[in-house]
Design goal:
Layout (H helix, E strand, L loop, with lengths): L28 E3 L8 E3 H7 L2 H5 L11 H15 L4 E4 L1 H5 L2 E2 L2 E6 L2 E4 L11 H5 L7 H8 L4 H4 L4 E5 L1 H4 L5
């Protein structure tokens, strides 16, 4: 046999399965949004650092076909269809007129959204979401959902931007 014909693959030892432990509970670290210094907290302390209201919120049973995944599929389809652009300078007086379960608008970070289609998909239930209907819900949203990308969740229901002149005193 020549040198090229005598090649064989080396034998590897049997792979060992590493012991997998829950990394979040075993000393890993994460940066927590409520940490004002930007310091890194051990993962065990993250739950303790979470605002009490967020930790105690309760999800409600949703109708069939109304999960967050169902909503995300719907948003993807609707965003492609609508080509959302939005109006400019919507007065707060107009937003206040849309405060019923049949017609609910809200303001979040200076943007106006029609939250009516999202009511039945909200994990906290319609009543919780209606607390921001017809109002600027930014502080309420930050209290419970600071980490949620609302722009993405509500992009198909974006109406426009709030008139900055009417925004003063509009916070709920």
């Amino acid at each position: 046999m020549t040198g090229a014909d005598s090649f064989s693959f080396p034998r590897l030892s049997e792979p060992t399965t590493p012991t997998i432990q829950n990394a979040l509970l075993k000393g890993s670290t994460v940066t927590h949004a409520s940490s004002t210094s930007g310091s890194i907290l051990p993962a065990k302390q993250v739950a303790a650092a979470r605002p009490k209201e967020a930790a105690n919120r309760q999800k409600v049973p949703l109708e069939a076909g109304c999960s967050q995944m169902d909503w995300l599929r719907r948003v993807g389809k609707r965003s492609k269809e609508t080509g959302v652009s939005g109006r400019q300078d919507i007065p707060m007086s107009e937003v206040k007129q849309h405060c019923t379960k049949e017609d609910a608008w809200t303001v979040l970070r200076g943007k106006v959204y029609n939250i009516t289609p999202y009511l039945k998909f909200h994990p906290g239930g319609k009543e919780m979401l209606m607390k921001g209907a017809g109002k600027d819900c930014t502080s309420l949203f930050q209290k419970y959902h600071a980490w949620v990308n609302a722009d993405m969740l509500l992009k198909a229901d974006y109406i426009g931007t709030l008139d900055p002149a009417s925004a003063a005193g509009a916070k709920s």
